[in-house]
Amino acid sequence: MQTSRGQESDQGLRARLVDVGVELVAREGVQALTLREIARRAGVSHGAPRRYFPTHLELLSAIARRGFEELAARATAAAGEGAGQPRAQVAALARVYLEFALGNRGMYELMFRHDLLESGHLGLRDTSLPLFGRLVDLVGRARPDADARLAAGALWAGLHGVAQLWGWGSLQLATGADDFTPVLRSVLDAHLGPEGE
Known about the structure:
By secondary structure, this protein is mostly helical. It has ten helices and no strands.
């Protein structure tokens, strides 16, 4: 079904193209995100997306932004009002991060593939960097003796590694764990010190 420009507002079609991309990455992964396939599934001509996204990278950035918005909403819900201890808040954010990564593998891959994205476009950095900023703040409060930005970066790298290796089944095999919680606890201990210290 071809949809003419007059039948649907520019904003409506733009949002629909992103919606289709979000659904496509969830079902088939990053490799399925071609302009032609998104247009086909949106029911528009293969050239239609270029009116709203002049480059493929801009469309990918808009799709990734949706992932960052969802992750940010989950992180905000997990952190609550920020009344808890910094370490407990870091643990809650880390759990949300891993659950999101493992439950949304295609979107997660897209979000952190800066080789595919132009993160300066469409406000992607405005959505992604505050998440890291929140982690830096909490790590700084939990580890005032450390360079918070570097410690948070190392913690994030550890969480990313857990997400990748758990998703591939490698950590389960190596550790014998059937739940990532003990691995997560070890990552937190390694970067924040043992709980209670």
